Amino acid sequence: MSYEIEINEQRFEDEPRAGQCLRTYLRERGWFGVKKGCDQGDCGACTVHVDGQPVHSCLYPAVRAEGRSVTTVEGLASPCGDLHPAQKQFLEAQGFQCGFCTAGFLMTTSALQAERGTVHDDGKLDDLPRAFKGNICRCTGYRAIEDAVRGVRHIEEPEAGRAVGLSPGAPAGPQVVTGTARYTFDVEVPGLLHMKLLRSPHPHARIVGFDTREALQVPGVHAVFTHHDAPDHLYSSARHEHPTEDPMDTRVLDDVVRFVGQRVAAVVADSEQAAEEGCRRVVVSYEELPYVIDPEEAMLPGAPILHPKGPESGIFRAENNVCGEVHGTIGDMERGYAEADVVYEETFRTQRVQHASLETHGSMAYFEPKEDGEGERITVRTSSQAPFLTRRALCALYGLDEDEVRVVTGRVGGGFGGKQEMLTEDIVVLAALRLRRPVKLEFTRAEQFHGATTRHPFKITIKAGAKGDGTLTALRIRIVSDTGAYGNHGPAVMFHSAGESFAVYKAPNKQVEAYSVYTNTVPAGAFRGYGLGQVLFALESVMDELALRLGMDPLTLREKNVIGPGDPMVTPIGHEEDLFIASYGMKQALDVVRRTEAEDRSHEDVPEGWLTGTGSAVAMIATGPPGGHFADARVSLLSDGTYDIAVGTAEFGNGTTTVHQQITAGALNTTVDRITVRQSDTDVVRHDTGAFGSAGTVVAGKAVMLAAGSLAERLRTFAARHTGVARHLCRLEAEAFDCAGRVLTLKELYEAAHDRGALEEIAADGHWGGSPRSVAFNAQWFRLAVDPDTGEMRILRSVHAADAGRVMNPMQCRGQVEGGVAQALGATLFETVRVDERGEVTTAAFRRYRLPQYADVPRTEVHFMETSDAIGPLGAKSMSESPFNPVAPAFANALRDATGIRFTELPVTRDVVWREINRKLQGGTDD
Fold it and tell me: Which residues contact 724 (CB under 8 A, 6 or more apart)?
């Protein structure tokens, strides 16, 4: 067969493999802008043009492209480097966050732009919900993408020293829109081997034997690894600064499997196809064991025990499958209920939710010379939110010194807490150490559902009492959190869920009873909000029910009971000594909701017969994890007179890289384009806990601020000594010092330091330990319309009030809020990881797991409160997780207002709404 294809105006004659899709063919030839998001045509991240028409290259057979012209995102720009209009629009609007989906949206947009005004123009550019049916974005909430397509410019170019508070674009923006940003697997590694995992078909079983002979006969297979080849050490896949926060209940490969989908063996081969065939030929003998799916049943006497381990594992009550628990009481509960004029009690349930980062979990391990040139070390390139903690865990697991392991993270294609885990790095390192060859493991989308982690499903029972004037007298909460088969993040999520969520309201009598429970289901893990969203769905729903029974305005009830500045944040689980209200935006947030409610007219054009309602909810969150979250940073002057920031935190669309540039530009009175950032590499700085817990700005950003401020003082001192001019007369400008009229360029200053052997004098370090911490506040408001005949729900208006302290970059911060609201709406309306009676995931594809698409997400109006935090860097607070938390209860409260029905279980799907409305019409009651 003769084969010829043109890719970005370059001719190729390599024949594709039998059955090969165009996506893998393109990536194997270095066109890494073509992304793998689903391999089923659901997400659009792989979109390319074939003869000018957009296609999903994961579904398009490479053989069909023979004789055709293929354009990837790298080929959109002109040969001289001028950006395509679509690329320029996305760059100016910053129509991306992590950027993993951006190439797909660009290819779709550019194709529609090319059709504009031709006979093929079917009006899709004026109907973006239809245009983007085949494209998914998990980060942005789609509004920035809409603005990009409409030609709206958001980026600003601040003057020297004035970047904070303005909206410069992300430094990686040009690479994102041209497809040259390098994610985990966007590199070529010579001699790379591929790993595939054999997974358990049973919810609970003991492995009694393997037969790997047939697997090892597959051409290209190098090795099959089982628990016999792996270290026997117990650890947790969760990444925390203090490993004791999580039970040590996991092994690299175990002789007992505890959920359908747990890894059983690893096959390493020359190709993914050979590794997959090897997995099919591994024969495993199992002794099936009893299993339990329901967490309440799992705690009962006689239930199957998942982890019969001793106290050294850190499991609270292994004999009852209780991974962690907490109990606490303040005051006298019975007296509190006796004093109440109204008592309301209800049970609420939240579901499993997948992070659905478009870049799946994956890593590769390979060898390179040590920094000192003495011997080799293993380098792990991974999609992780915590590279330093991953290195620490790998060293402990395999008995290696830190100088023998380097962990580096490229640009990460979405995280949301899901990559605060070690799910691939441990096993690729095992294989690389044994084979002394580079090894790669990349999850499929199905594996992401049944082999990664989910949000914890919760069962929450709240009993609340209030006096006739609305004063809360008692709050009792019982939480049962299903941690799945392993306890990674289980106790921490449970503990956190009963913290700020409970402290946001004052009541003299409070009680908490909370359990994190093992079941034979896919493990849960860290997820945006870290347990607060689940409990706030219940608590904020209860607040509205109390208001209804008291005949009060729900906002008035909240205003009367919400925590205020100077109030202690006390919960039954204890007072966190380092947590303070260092700025207070709750009152402003409630005022935004009240004004919106008063002036809103969005319901006036609703179809006849539809029901309308409004609802709101509030939330409070700590601006960092408890127990310390550490960051080191170093800012240096470079030989060309520009600056370099070295910082450990990873960039996955959270915008911290831009903020770090802005902070440094302010401290050094320069422009952001004169600052480069090196990050998420264990070679770069001493330590960084990780990009989780909304710590990118308030922890790593503070370390950068301290380093940049220190460098400014060091440079001034050096300039004064070099010029002989008094220090206070030396003024740092964008590219030079003005020392009483004498200009000393920064390039000259570097040369002087170099000549003196004093380069350490033109660099400075900063460190921040994440304590003390402040709190951030959020409020969400919706007006809904509901069709009682079909259950259809429409969001007529969405308003979010965010207390982010001093907003470092309004454009990026608004994007975090919009994305958080959109993701929370998915969890509210349709997202759910379903498991069957054996605990097996049945929604292991995007087409079965409903993600928000462009047409599903309203344009949320974002209001920032005018506060400045006394703890955060330059007055800033975190705003990555918190927008998610009040969305579900605000929606549920609006639905209650519209229909008179309290929905107590998520997701609130259209069919459930229709069923409950009809039940009520037929004589059922809600109250």
Answer: none
Please name the residue ranges forming H helices in 673-771.
695, 701-723, 746-755
pLDDT of residue 924: 64
Rounded distance between C-alpha atoms, residue 318 and residue 305, angstroms: 7
Q: What pLDDT, on a 0 to 100 scale, did the predictor assign at position 576?
A: 81
User: Letter for the amino acid at 298?
Assistant: A
- Angle, in degrees to the nearest 10, between helices 810-829 and 143-150: 120
The residues, ordered by sequence, that sit 6+ positions from 772 with a Cβ below 8 Å of its Cβ are: 578, 579, 580, 582, 871
> Residue 197: its pLDDT value, please?
98
Q: Give strand pairing partners of 464.
A: 344, 475
Angle at which helix 554-561 crosses helix 586-599, to 10 degrees, equals 170
Nearest in space to 557 (alpha carbons), one of 915, 893, 168, 114: 893
Residues with Cβ within 8 Å of residue 120, at least 6 apart in sequence:
none
Question: Is the separation of the CB atoms in 199 and 378 below 8 Å?
Answer: no
In degrees and rounded to multiples of 5, residue 49 shows phi and psi of -100, 130
- Residue 559 has a pLDDT of 97
CB 763 within 8 A of CB 684: no
* Strand arrangement, sheet containing 69-71: 10-12, 5-7, 69-71, 47-50, 53-56
Tens of pLDDT, residue by residue over 592-631, are: 999 999 999 999 999 999 999 999 999 999 998 888 899 9
Judge whether 383 and 419 are in contact, CB under 8 Å: yes
pLDDT at 885: 98
**Sheet (strand 205-211) strand order:** 256-257, 205-211, 283-288
Residue 725 CB contacts under 8 Å (≥ 6 apart), including other chains: 719, 739, 740, 742
Whether the CB-CB separation of 73 and 108 falls below 8 Å is answered with no
The token duo for 677 is 């950032």
Structure tokens at 662: 């802005």
Amino acid identity of residue 214, one-letter, is E
Q: Cα(197)–Cα(258) distance, rounded to whole angstroms? A: 16
Mind listing the pLDDT tens digit for each residue in 356-385? Answer: 999 999 999 999 998 887 889 999 999 999
Q: How buried is 702 (Cβ within 10 angstroms: 0-12 exposed, 13-18 middle, 19+ buried)?
A: buried
Per the listing, tokens 């303005």 go with 166
- The whole-angstrom separation of Cα 456 and Cα 535 is 11
| Amino acid letter, residue 685 | V
Beta strands 263-269 and 221-225 are: antiparallel
Contacts of 24 (CB under 8 A, 6+ apart): 62
Measured CA to CA in angstroms, residue 557 lies from 554, 561, 734 at distances of 5, 6, 52
Tokens of 385: 């939110």
Longest dimension (CA), the chain: 90
Cα–Cα distance, 103 to 110 (Å, whole number): 10
pTM (2 decimals)?
A: 0.97
Q: Residue 342: which of 601, 633, 543, 111 has the closest Cα? A: 543
Distance CA 778, CA 424 (A): 35
Torsion sign across C-alpha atoms 254, 260, 261, 265: positive
Any idea what DSSP says for residue 835? Answer: B
Q: What is the pLDDT of residue 626?
A: 85
Structure tokens at 150: 């409409």
> CA geometry: angle at 828 spanning 925 and 922, to 5°?
20
Tokens 């909701």: give the residue. 593
The 3-class secondary structure across 388-456, one letter per residue, is HHHHHHHHHHHCCCHHHEEEECCECCCCCCCCCECCCHHHHHHHHHHHCCCEEEECCHHHHHHCCCECC
The answer to whether 628 and 687 have CB atoms below 8 angstroms apart is no
CA 529 – CA 776 distance, rounded (Å): 12
pLDDT value at position 371?
A: 80
Strands (E), 486-563: 510-518
State the Cα–Cα distance between residues 309 and 251, nearest whole angstrom: 13
Q: Which residues of the chain have pLDDT under 50?
A: none
> Which single residue is written with the structure tokens 């199905």?
446
